[in-house]
Amino acid sequence: MRECKIVSKKFEIENAHTLAVAKKHGAYASLEKLKEYSPLEIINIIQESKLRGKGGGGASAAEKWALMPQTGDKPSFLVVNCDESEPGTFKDRQIISKDPHLLLEGILLTCYAIKAKHAYIYIRGEYFQFQKILQAAIDEAYAEGLLTECDITIHRGAGAYICGEKSALLESMEGKRGHPRLKPKQKEPEWFFNNPALVNNVETIASVPFIVQNGAEVYKAFGTKQSPGTLLFAMSGHVERPGVYEAEFGTSMMEYINHFGGGIKNGKKLKAVIPGGVSCGVLTAKECENLTLDYEALRHIGSSLGTGGMIIMDEDTDMIEALKNILEFYHEESCGQCTPCREGTGWSDKLVAKILDKRGTKEDIDKLLEIADTMDGKTICVFAPSVSIVIVSFISKFRDEFEAALCVK
């Protein structure tokens, strides 16, 4: 397996989170390219690189950037999402804690390309220690004169998962660097709703400096034709060496688990893998044998690469208990706006608890699948369909375990 360190290049360098050490190892060098390229040319480079969003969806980054207006009177904004609420996802904190200046460099390049003068980084509430590191890096960048063309503001929120970005962003804007502070019960300013904003996650933006500095073809030399480049995979669960490791798309899943993770813990057998965070369909050990880590391969098998949050489960894992753990998260996180989601997450959580407690019936399993169907595609956002995917994949692939746990009358 060849070494692919695009985003994680400085992760092992001591004090790389400081400006002095980061600059010593090439930080902000790509900003020199802004003397050569116009904003549209930067977007074209990103388009040629085929950079895909690394926050879960895998959509073309450049296509989103190209939607931002290059002319007009309204200001544009960049929003960098570092919420990482989904269980199994913990890669963005690595960038922020080990190489925050890489993210800031990516922000400056992106803001130049979309002609934004202000970027907002939304960070989850539990990430207080990472916010301190990131804010220190921002302060260093201001002191060095690197942020003369673009302001950067952090907002630490409650953890929004899907639906809370707008309110968190609005709160972060209050009273910041010339923006109006809202008084209690005052309506949101019209400029907030009427101005264009680009939203990308941390790793997507942190990939931009390498591409601008080295060119699209160098980036595309890694990965596959349809999934070029690399991804930070956050590997947790029953492996010898859990952690965050960067690999190119197209890498063998089992080779990745064995090379970086050291194999299944205590020499046990692999039973299942959730490949990209708990919103992705679970995979059996058999399905993982010849599977590669790229968007197309995971989609073909009925799952998703997601954020790369890879959860490994060994032969002793109780799959009913695993599903219960996931559904507790979804039950808690549902915003409650849509009835199928509000009622479905709670109902499915209770039914799995009933089965886990040996009080379930075959009708309860069928009812779980019926609830999953009701939640799929019948709500405003993708939260409920994610729950549906999880329920269906667990039951369809491990139904024998669910049936073995049913109440025997």
Number of strands: 11
Output the CATH class name of the largest domain. Alpha Beta
Rounded to an integer in angstroms, the radius of gyration calculated over CA atoms is: 22 Å
Net shape: globular
Helical fraction equals: 40-55%
How much of the sequence lies in strands comes to 5-15%
Distance between the termini: 54 Å
Secondary-structure element pattern, one letter each: HHHEHHEHEHHEHHHEEEHEEHEHEHHHHH
Q: Would you identify the CATH architecture of the largest domain?
A: 3-Layer(aba) Sandwich
Biggest sheet details: 5 strands, mixed
Name given to the CATH homologous superfamily of the largest domain: NADH-ubiquinone oxidoreductase 51kDa subunit
Count of discrete domains: 3
Mean pLDDT: 90
The helix tally amounts to: 19
Contiguous uncertain segments of 5+ residues:
160-189
> Helices and strands: which structural class?
alpha/beta
Summarize the model shown.
With 409 residues, the chain is of the alpha/beta class.
Report on the structure:
The chain is of the alpha/beta class and 409 residues long. Helices cover 43% and strands 14% of the residues. It contains 19 helices and eleven strands. The chain has helices at residues 19-24, 39-49, 61-66, 92-98, 100-114, 128-143, 165-173, 190-194, 202-206, 208-214, 216-220, 253-259, 285-288, 295-300, 319-333, 339-356, 362-375, 383-397, 399-404; strands at 76-82, 116-124, 151-157, 197-201, 230-237, 243-248, 251-252, 270-274, 283-284, 292-293, 309-314. Helix 15 runs antiparallel to helix 18 and helix 16 runs antiparallel to helix 17 (362-375). The protein is globular and about 75 Å long. The N and C termini lie far apart (54 Å).
